[in-house]
Amino acid sequence: MPVPSTGQEAQYYHTGGNKRLVIQSNQIVGYEYRDNPSDAWKKSGDPSRYNNLIQLFKQNQISSEGRYQHEQQRRKGFISSKENKINSILDDLAQKVGGIDQHYFKEAKDTAKQLLNALHGAKSNYLTNLNNLDMNIENVNEDFENTCKSLIDEARPILERDLGWGTYLTNLLKTITNAIIYVVTFGQVNNFFKQEQAESMKTVEEVEQKLKL
Question: Of the given ranges (56-65, 77-86, 100-109), which has the lowest mean pLDDT?
Answer without folding.
Answer: 56-65
